[in-house]
Design goal:
Radius of gyration: 20 Å
Number of strands: 0
Helix content: over 70%
Number of helices: 7
Number of domains: 1
CATH topology: Methane Monooxygenase Hydroxylase, Chain G, domain 1
CATH class: Mainly Alpha
Oligomer: single chain
Length: 217
C-alpha cells in the first residue's frame, strides 16, 4: 500500500458518514409519511397496502444502518466520536422499527377506524422525523450550533405534546362510557404506549446530538 493510500485510510472520511446519516434520516421521513398515511387511512385494505411499502422502507433502513456500522469498523479516524455516530444510527433505526411495528399492530388488530389521537400521534411523529432529518444536515458545520439548538428545542416541544396526548388518550380509553370492550381497550393501550415510546426514542436522538455539541465545542 502506497503512502497516499495509507494517508487516505488514516484521514477522517467525513463525507461517507454525512451521506450515510442523511440517507438514514431521509428514509426515516419517508417512513413517517407512510405511517401517517396508514394512521389516517379510510379502510383496512389501504393500511395493508401502505404497510407493504413501509416494510420496504424499514428494510432499506436496516441496510443503511449496516453500511454505517461497516464504515465505522473500517475507518481509523471518524469526524465525530464513533460511539456517537453509532448511537445516532441506532436511534434512527429504532424509531423506524417502532413505526413499522405499530403499523403492523394496527393491521394485525384489524383496526378500521382512524381516531383523532392516532392521527395526531402520526402527525407528531412525522414532524419529529423531519426535525431529525433537518438537524442531522446541520451537524457538519460547527457554526450551525444556534440552529441545531432551535431544532432540539422543537423536538422537545413535540415530545411534550406527545406525552400530553398519551395521558389524554389513556384517560379517554379507560372511561367507563368509552363504548369499547376490554379487548379493544387493551389493543389501543398497546398502540398508544408504543406511539409514546417512539416519540421518546426520537428525543433520544437529540440527546446524542447535544452531547456531540458539547464535545466538539
Amino acid at each position: 500500500m502506497g503512502f497516499s493510500s495509507v494517508l487516505r485510510f488514516l484521514l477522517p472520511r467525513e463525507e461517507q458518514f454525512h451521506v450515510l446519516l442523511r440517507q438514514g434520516t431521509q428514509n426515516l421521513v419517508r417512513a413517517g409519511e407512510l405511517f401517517l398515511a396508514i394512521a389516517s387511512a379510510a379502510d383496512l385494505e389501504q393500511r395493508r397496502i401502505k404497510l407493504v411499502e413501509l416494510k420496504a422502507v424499514e428494510h432499506e433502513g436496516d441496510q443503511i444502518t449496516r453500511r454505517t456500522f461497516e464504515a465505522l469498523n473500517s475507518t481509523f479516524i471518524t469526524p465525530f466520536d464513533r460511539e456517537d455516530i453509532r448511537s445516532l444510527a441506532v436511534d434512527v433505526d429504532d424509531v423506524l422499527d417502532y413505526l413499522e411495528g405499530i403499523a403492523q399492530f394496527i393491521v394485525l388488530f384489524e383496526v378500521r377506524e382512524a381516531p383523532e389521537p392516532l392521527t395526531r400521534f402520526a402527525e407528531i411523529l412525522l414532524e419529529l422525523c423531519r426535525q431529525i432529518d433537518a438537524v442531522t444536515e446541520l451537524i457538519w458545520d460547527h457554526t450551525n450550533a444556534p440552529r441545531i439548538q432551535e431544532r432540539m428545542v422543537r423536538v422537545s416541544e413535540l415530545e411534550n405534546q406527545a406525552d400530553a396526548l398519551y395521558l389524554t388518550s389513556l384517560g379517554a380509553l379507560f372511561r367507563k362510557d368509552n363504548g369499547k370492550d376490554a379487548v379493544e381497550v387493551m389493543k389501543w393501550k398497546e398502540i398508544y404506549q408504543d406511539l409514546e415510546d417512539a416519540c421518546d426514542k426520537a428525543k433520544d436522538f437529540t440527546h446524542v446530538l447535544g452531547n456531540m455539541l458539547i464535545k466538539n465545542a
